[in-house]
Amino acid sequence: MTAEEAGHHVVSSDAGPLRADAATFIAAARSGDTARFALITERHRRELQVHCYRMLANYEDAQDMTQETFLRAWNKRESFKGDATLRTWLYRIATNVCLDFLEKRDDRAPVPSELPDSEVLYLQPYPDRMLPEDPQESVVVRETIELAFIVAVQHLPPRQRAVFILRDVLGWPASKAADALEVTVASVTSALQRARVTMRERLPGSRLDWRSPTTHELSDDERGVVKSYIEAHERNDLDGLISLLRGDLRFAMLPESGTVVRTAKDAVDGWVSGGLFQRGHDDWRGITTTVNRMPAAALYLRTPGDPEYRLFAIAVLRIVDGKIAELTGFDAAGKPWLDVPPAL
Q: Which keywords does this Swiss-Prot/TrEMBL entry list (predicted)?
């Protein structure tokens, strides 16, 4: 059964000037023209990097594996015969590059499904400016790039993860996914069934529509909540901050371990006991931004004697009915790729 038959929305397809691409690529491969090769393959960089990010949940790793994909493609260029599209061939390489990476990294084992609050410590936010510009891709990318989706995928074993992404996100038929992974169609079908069960368990009921097209624009409600969240920091208004949080807030601060809490009160108590909003950590500024197509606040702290506000953290928010239901904080220092100013 194809993704379309299962009712899954296909993010992107092999539509476009594929025959010309393939012929041009083969000519470049045979000539050994590295500049021409780079020009042809570079147009696929953003979508391949998003694919690697879905597999790995880490922006920096996704960058590295995308670069490894292009290197491996160059080294294997003679193997491209034009039987599949160039795009398909590159996705196949990228998928196997990520699987090889996961096989070598003990710290990237699937998150145990029996631990509902387990953290994905290597999770990083994805800057929106690096998402694909293709309209068909961007229409649905929010639901398959949001943090809840990316974290849920990390509960899948690597091969299931690859099958799920190829089949239910990219919309590949089973035979195409089986060919990419060098397994049988029956293996792909079995892996997909198991992966779908896990994903339904991991994503809250309200999120099961991730397959449907959605706009990637933030709503006025979301923008208003982020603005209020920043202003509460700037006023050191703990009551105002608490009023923005749902009582059953889920909060985590990455890459620190053991920070998952399940109530707004515990979160705020933890911030205060950790020194935030205390003397020396009470001079805040913030700007509204987005990462992973989600509302976010870049928070800046000015410490005594420092003339500038320094980037402190990125708070990524999931907002439900005007309240913050999930807050994932990321250490933002030393990450210029987040595309926010390092200081104000």
A: Nucleotidyltransferase, Transferase
